[in-house]
Write a structure and sequence with these properties.
heterodimer; A: mainly alpha; MetI-like fold; 12 helices; B: alpha/beta; D-Maltodextrin-Binding Protein, domain 2; 6-stranded mixed beta sheet; 5-stranded mixed beta sheet
Chain lengths: 293, 437
């Protein structure tokens, strides 16, 4: 059944893929190779000298209980960010899909937060929850709840999760919304005639039909929460209190660019690369089987 | 807004001038100041540029202290380093270890022939930036030391005499209880907890913060911050935090906002908090020396500095270094220093600038502004109070912050937290030692 267009010769296909290969080489393979090479050394910050330590950096990291703890923190953070950014997005998409009037306005408003850079989003949420002048923390205070993410690790985690997920809801919403449009009306109508109510139709027909989109978003959101949430963490908690919000990628930054320990920082990015690679492979192996295209 | 606009125009013209006056040698100066301090630095640079025709200093803001240091390091690796880089005191060991990347200030001054008298600088200020045999490696620029800020109105509202003796922590302890009982919700707040409540605490009581003379004698140093004096102090602060007498606001100087808005009664912060507090506080305030524990160590010894110094980077033309020398000499000159000291609350770096300020009657008009100077210079510094020179110090401070948060949250005892800080910090010190072998 597959249709395949093949090129004759090799020059044209080569020219067509060359830009992509070039960009990947410059912005991915070269830096990744550098990171692997650097992870074998303990260099001084200025690059004037460096000591070859083999796998010493990795040994140092894996012996550090705080580094090991940061894996768990990262897992909790990623799962929460993925859930908090996908579930409301799906809900909003379903609601917006049902709208007859003004759907365009809602859609536009819901997409806006995506345009806010993570660091800026972090600052916005920080202001709302600021223990001294924050609007939300003030209302919580009125309700008798003493909000203090500066000392309470769980509150800090909650805050960075919400701030990271907020802009992502828009992104996920966009994909879910488009996917919902593609669900054939005839199937839904048939179910409706059989007497299935809205939520039953949703769970038995729409949700399974959305599974390719859901799977795609799952992978993308996990990768997002691993790598791109750095700005939010940096502006809101800087990894604290204690180590409550020190996720792996934040530690790469703080060891490399605050501590100038480039050896450890490179080793950490190599570990992170392996972890995300493994996760993606696992996702494709086990979850993709349940996806219906 | 108008000021901001003017500032932008001024910055714009400064950047454009070298194109017009191409005969001048350009000196790049990277710093970490914004706001009022940024304006004051720009004014110094402009004044220097106007006073002579041979050199054009171009000042650029490169972010906060950590970011500025990183920008300098990245630029050096790319061969585009500035002539002068502002580095905070925490980065001192990193810079000292970078032989081949930096040009010691004493050498720059010697070669340039600019006016330079190493003895003119205040010992406890320059001590942080000199080698063990007294050679100045970087030029102290902005230096401050922690003091105790008092909100007199808050004291009166809580029914406590604002003139009460606050010289020791024992007395402060009693006062905090009185304040709390008098209805004060925020008796004590602090900025820079590691710097004030561990580093300065150690120096002030003449106990080591780290072995090897706090790292001055070599990179094979280990933290010693879990001694009895430090544990006692942190334990007490933990109790205050539990009783709501000490309010923790964050790792940097977040507490400043709480104090300046009048919410808090006492605030331990750098003497350089002066400019901000004076501008914003709508209450009666005064400055007291940092309290000490009576009967512990040799307190009061002297406190140590925080702030930044100017490092000269290697790899430029000899002619450029002459200009650098001239500029550094200009910055150290008495009128420039005295003005800087009075505008900012930073310490004068030369004794002459301090004298000039006193003679001008500044201390009498602004009582308490000499507290920091006195506290720093009252005694000859010892090996424990000369300063602290540790590799990866920025990260070690991060570890200390984390551990202290454990104490404030009631998760850890002071002893546990400080033991853990030592253990974790020592690992970083070993890595730094290895990297700089």
């Amino acid at each position: 059944m597959e249709k395949r267009v093949t090129f004759k010769g090799w020059l044209l296909p080569f020219i067509l893929i060359a830009p992509q290969v070039f960009i990947s080489a410059v912005f991915f393979f070269y830096p990744a190779g550098q990171a692997i090479w650097q992870s074998l050394f303990i260099p001084d910050p200025f690059g004037l000298s460096s000591q070859f330590v083999g796998l010493g950096n990795f040994e140092y990291l894996l012996n550090d209980r705080f580094y090991r703890a940061s894996f768990l923190t990262t897992a909790i953070f990623s799962i929460l960010v993925t859930l908090v950014s996908m579930v409301p997005a799906l809900f909003l998409a379903v609601i917006a899909d049902r709208l007859v009037k003004g759907a365009g306005v809602y859609r536009t408003l819901l997409i806006w937060p995506y345009a806010v850079a993570p660091a800026v989003a972090g600052v916005l949420w920080l202001f709302m929850f600021n223990t001294r002048v924050g609007v939300v923390s003030w209302y919580l205070g009125q309700l008798g709840y003493d909000w203090n993410h500066v000392l309470n690790g769980n509150e800090a985690m909650g805050l960075v999760v919400v701030a990271s997920a907020w802009g992502r809801i828009s992104y996920n919403f966009l994909f879910f919304f488009a996917a919902l449009q593609a669900v054939p009306k005839s199937v839904i109508e048939a179910a409706a005639i059989d007497g299935a109510r809205f939520w039953r139709r949703f769970f038995t027909i729409v949700l399974p039909l959305l599974s390719p989109t859901t799977f795609f978003l799952l992978v993308v959101n996990i990768v997002y929460s691993f790598f791109e949430t750095f700005g939010v963490i940096h502006t809101i908690t800087a990894g604290g209190p204690q180590q409550a919000t020190t996720i792996l990628v934040y530690k790469v930054f703080s060891d490399g660019f605050v501590g100038q320990d480039l050896g450890s920082s490179s080793a950490q990015s190599v570990i992170l690369l392996i972890v995300v690679g493994l996760l993606t492979v696992l996702q494709f192996k086990f979850i993709e089987k349940r996806v219906h295209y | 807004m108008k000021r901001l606009l003017l500032g932008t125009i001024a910055a714009g013209t400064t950047a454009l001038t070298p194109i017009v006056a191409s005969a001048q040698t350009e000196i790049q100066f990277w710093h970490a100041f914004t706001g009022r301090l940024g304006e004051l630095v720009a004014a110094q640079v402009e004044d220097f540029n106007e006073k002579q025709d041979d050199y054009e200093v171009v000042a650029s803001h490169k972010g906060n202290y950590s970011e500025t240091l990183n920008a300098g390091i990245a630029a050096f690796r790319a061969g585009e380093q500035p002539h002068i880089l502002m580095v905070f005191e925490v980065g001192t060991a990193t810079m000292m270890g970078a032989q081949g990347a930096i040009k010691p200030v004493y050498e720059v001054m010697e070669e340039s022939g600019a006016e330079f008298d190493p003895d003119a600088y205040i010992g406890s200020v320059k001590g942080y930036y000199t080698t063990t045999d007294g050679q100045m490696l970087s030029l102290p620029f902005n230096s401050s030391t922690p003091v105790l800020w008092v909100n007199r109105d808050a004291f009166e509202a809580a029914g406590v005499d604002p003139d009460t003796d606050l010289s020791t922590w024992q007395k402060v302890d009693e006062v905090l209880t009185q304040l709390k009982e008098g209805g004060e919700d925020c008796p004590l707040v602090t900025a820079w907890q590691s710097w004030i409540h561990l580093e300065n605490l150690s120096a002030y009581h003449d106990v080591p913060f780290a072995t090897q003379d706090n790292g001055f004698a070599g990179t094979d140093t280990e933290l010693a911050l879990n001694g009895p004096v430090q544990v006692k102090h942190i334990e007490k602060m933990g109790e205050w935090a539990e009783d709501g007498k000490f309010i923790y606001t964050g790792r940097r100087n977040e507490g400043g906002a709480n104090f300046r808005s009048g919410e808090c009664a006492l605030f331990t912060e750098s003497s350089a908090g002066y400019a901000g507090i004076k501008a914003e506080a709508e209450f009666d305030f005064d400055v007291r020396p940092l309290p000490y524990w009576e009967g512990e160590g040799n307190a009061p010894q002297n406190t140590i500095i925080g702030g930044a110094s100017l490092w000269v980077m290697e790899g430029h033309e000899p002619e450029d270094y002459k200009g650098v020398g001239e500029f550094l000499s200009y910055l150290s000159s008495t009128p420039v220093q005295a003005q800087w000291h009075q505008d900012t609350g930073y310490l004068p770096i030369t004794s002459a600038a301090g004298e000039a300020t006193r003679e001008a009657g500044f201390y009498e008009e602004n009582p308490g502004t000499d507290t920091a100077v006195t506290q720093m210079t009252a005694k000859e510094p010892t090996a424990n109070s000369k300063g602290i020179r540790l590799g990866s110090f920025d990260q070690i401070r991060g570890i200390i912050d984390e551990e202290l948060e454990g104490v404030w949250a009631g998760d850890k005892s002071a002893q546990e937290a400080l033991d853990s800080a030592k253990e974790r910090g020592d690992q970083l010190l070993r890595r730094f030692e290895q990297a700089n072998r």
